[in-house]
């Protein structure tokens, strides 16, 4: 009951009903959303928190912080944006994205057009390279714009666990709490060796838990849109004080910024040491005109399923041949980064970088493996981990 139409089930028809039943094997911060078109970018998602009955709970309060990039209701829908991208830059692209001169240009050519194009739009990140394809008019925190932010309350001195979810479709966020450092404790639901940091970079589909000991007063929780103009905002209030304005700037995002790829697994969730029985390369490529994103040169559903056998240790090697970052997500498994052991199910693969992850094939089925940029996934950057159960 993984919900991917055409892969594990038929889509739920309009007006229809489908009851999902599943066991929650792992505690942690998750979210659920459709895999139909670009519905995710219309806000059809929710957060799923699985509590750990054995978790010591060394915190006093808990906040859920959901980040999103938002266009719906502003005269343009995600479906129109997708259609415009696929039409390759006709006039209807308007001010969203200058596609002029992009015919035939390839994301894959180093020093080619992508840098230039993203340069035009400013969608370049020192950490991620090409940081997105779409300029959004709003960035949301728990569904609210910076003009009308949510207030997160606690008592002065309390330690708060913040569960961050990036539900955005084309935007990574750099999150920070003004005047505070936070300690990252979990990545994609699984515990890590805790790391203090000023700020944290969250790719689409990634979740992180962090603890912060909040001082007395009013503080902005800011999520800047990486490589883009704009931010999302919440107001943290533990005492008296004037709320920050929507364009408040905090120093922390320009200080130490942590990425999930530098985290190490907590000892309790390390994979047993073992050499890989099988490895698969996933070469990530794409182009803007035509707008298509590929795995091993093919677009879904023409991508070749990655065959596994139950019981194997499998290495996936993500080889990014494009000038954009891709948050690559594997369904049904939580892999381990080979360099640090950190358990994750979504990981940022930087431009022209190679990143290896290992997983145990212990959950037979047809599992979508895709970029969590929803426009990339929808235009091809998806394949399947495929294996049958023994007996
Ligand atoms: Cu992508």
TrEMBL record:
InterPro entries: Cu-oxidase-like_N, Cu-oxidase_2nd, Cu-oxidase_C, Cu-oxidase_fam, Cu_oxidase_Cu_BS, Cupredoxin, CuRO_3_CopA. Keywords: Copper, Metal-binding, Oxidoreductase. The keyword rRNA-binding does not apply. The keyword Coiled coil does not apply. Residues 1-54, 138-238, 284-386 form the Plastocyanin-like domain. CDD domains: CuRO_2_CopA_like_1 (cd13870), CuRO_3_CopA (cd13896). Transmembrane segments: none annotated. This is FtsP/CotA-like multicopper oxidase with cupredoxin domain. It comes from Nocardioides salarius. The lineage of its organism: Bacteria, Bacillati, Actinomycetota, Actinomycetes, Propionibacteriales.
């Amino acid at each position: 009951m993984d919900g991917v139409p055409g892969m594990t089930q038929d889509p739920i028809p309009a007006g229809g009903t489908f009851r999902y039943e599943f066991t929650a094997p792992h505690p942690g911060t998750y979210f659920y959303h459709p895999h139909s078109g670009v519905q995710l970018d219309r806000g059809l998602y929710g957060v799923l928190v699985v509590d750990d009955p054995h978790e010591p709970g060394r915190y006093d309060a808990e906040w859920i912080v959901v980040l999103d990039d938002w266009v719906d209701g502003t005269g343009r829908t995600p479906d129109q944006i997708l259609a415009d991208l696929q039409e390759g830059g006709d006039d209807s692209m308007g001010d969203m994205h200058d596609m002029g001169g992009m015919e035939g240009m390839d994301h894959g050519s180093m020093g080619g057009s992508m840098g230039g194009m993203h340069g035009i739009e400013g969608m370049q990140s020192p950490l991620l390279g090409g940081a997105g394809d779409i300029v959004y008019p709003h960035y949301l925190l728990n569904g609210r714009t910076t003009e009308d932010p949510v207030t997160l309350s606690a008592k002065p001195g309390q330690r708060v666990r913040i569960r961050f979810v990036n539900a955005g479709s084309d935007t990574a966020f750099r999150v920070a709490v003004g005047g505070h450092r936070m300690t990252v404790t979990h990545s994609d639901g699984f515990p890590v060796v805790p790391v203090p940091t000023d700020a944290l970079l969250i790719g689409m589909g990634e979740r992180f838990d962090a603890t912060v000991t909040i001082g007395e007063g009013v503080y902005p929780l800011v999520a800047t849109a990486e490589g883009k103009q704009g931010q999302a905002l919440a107001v943290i209030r533990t005492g008296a004080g004037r709320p920050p304005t929507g364009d408040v700037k905090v120093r922390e995002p320009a200080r130490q910024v942590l990425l999930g790829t530098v985290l190490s697994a907590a000892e309790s969730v390390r994979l047993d040491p073992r050499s890989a029985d099988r490895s698969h390369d996933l070469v990530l490529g794409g182009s803007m005109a035509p707008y298509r994103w590929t795995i091993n040169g093919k677009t879904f559903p023409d991508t070749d399923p990655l065959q596994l056998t139950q019981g194997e240790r499998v290495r996936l090697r993500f080889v990014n041949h494009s000038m954009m970052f891709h948050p690559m997500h594997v369904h049904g498994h939580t892999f381990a980064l080979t360099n640090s052991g950190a358990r994750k199910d979504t990981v940022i693969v930087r431009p022209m970088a190679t990143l290896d992850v290992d997983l145990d094939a212990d959950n037979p089925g047809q599992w979508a493996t895709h970029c969590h940029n929803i426009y990339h996934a929808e235009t091809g950057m998806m394949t399947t981990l495929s294996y049958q159960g023994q007996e």
